Request: fold
Amino acid sequence: MTTQSITAFWLGYVPSGEGAGPLLQATPPCVDVLILAFGNLFPGNTTCLQFLQTSHSRDQIRAGLAALRRSSPDLKILLSLIGTPNPPVGWNTGITDPAAFGAWCAQLAREWDLDGFDIDNEDLDTFPGDAFVATVKGMRAAMPDAVLTLDTYLFERDRAVISALSTTLTAINTMAYFYDFDAMTRLVEQYATVIDPGRIAVGVKAGKVGLDQGTSVADTAKLCRWNPGSGPKRGMMLWNLSQDIQSVTGQPDGTWIRTIQENLPGHPPARDAQAAAIDTPGPRNPG
Reply:
């Protein structure tokens, strides 16, 4: 049986530890790709990490990453980059020198011991076009071996750039969390017409269905077992570990990550130690 990968986000901008979500170093061993959220695009073809460090200092995050490198040497760790409203810099038009931006990202990856970047382009003022494609290709040119993923949920908006970047991106993550099983699988089938299904991770959200765009536990399990008609998917993406806790979802801590592990092809059932890794004692507060 082919093992499919588990990608999960961890939020630096919400508290973690006792009374909140899991610490960075408590990322479950079943996670194959961990994405830190978020860094921001910044003027001058650079980035800013202030938002990532809203609830955790640079030293705390670096210590968590170092602990993960020791405990999970095969884990791929990415930083997710989004645009910023102030000063306004977006993915579609904000990067004016792709080579300079690629070099900046490569240096940032070295400084933070990252394996690559996640591209969260939700700029809705303009459609992504040639400038965005050039930016991602600039990142790839500067980091030939890096993991580069793209988050997407608007197929008609993104289809052209995904097709243009199909050999540049490592993978895409769908994030249509608010869709039910049938609508989500139809969307994935659309994406599979422009990029190999083996590079599509199906995104789900830990949360309450109908209230905060949560994906039901039942649909999460079904999506793990489902594959596009053209071939096996890459795996699943969870938004997010930090809020997969009872005070947010109404379900026991770690319900979504355990559901993914137990239903995704090639993954063993969750062990007690793995369940405990994302549980902390005491009452929970919304993240």
